Amino acid sequence: MSIVIRDVREHELDSVLALNNAAGAAILPLDAAKIRFFFDHAEYFRVAEVDGLLAGFLIALSQDAPHDSPNFRWFQQHYDRFIYIDRIVVAGSRRGAGLGRVFYADLQSFAEVRSPRIACEVFLEPGNDIALLFHGTFGFHEAGRQLMPGVERHVSLLVKELCSWPWVRDTYGESLPEQPWLATRPLPGRQPALATGT
């Protein structure tokens, strides 16, 4: 099995939307406008190709994104800096093959030179022990809980502190080395650029 993790391409947004909306109750549905919002604002929007076919995606935003999610806003109120995982989706036929772990390892590599922490939430209703265990094995801990407005489901708000961040910040400040693997994805109004730690 060949797995490639790469930035999403604009012509794939319809496929990503279909994958999201086929994921079941654990993932909130999206429409074309929201997928476009993520394409325009997400610091991290990558897909997984397995044997050449789209098999999943992960979307994450910095604390500065104009995101209206009540869970994202909770993190904004409690932390000055973070990378927020809005969603991860793996195609039903590829679940259990480790793609979630591959995505999280890739996201951590992306985040640890940009932020002191990763944030996300997990629905607690219906029982979601597998998702909680998955996040716990990655070093996430619960920072709070809330009843998500509009959805009326309780969520566990999770945070993972990135132990490498203080060293990166103290060593490089806001100017990381010019390396291709540190480049950020191009967003509207911003040219492709190297990570700056902001």
From TrEMBL:
Positions of the N-acetyltransferase domain: 3-163
InterPro entries tied to this protein:
Acyl_CoA_acyltransferase, GNAT_dom, UCP028520
The organism's place on the tree of life at top rank: Bacteria
Family matches, as SUPFAM superfamilies:
Acyl-CoA N-acyltransferases (Nat)
Stretches assigned to coiled coil: none
Q: Name one Pfam family in it.
A: Acetyltransf_1
Q: Which GO terms describe its molecular function?
A: acyltransferase activity, transferring groups other than amino-acyl groups
Using the record, list the residue span of the signal peptide; answer none if the entry has no such feature. Answer: none
Protein name as annotated: N-acetyltransferase domain-containing protein
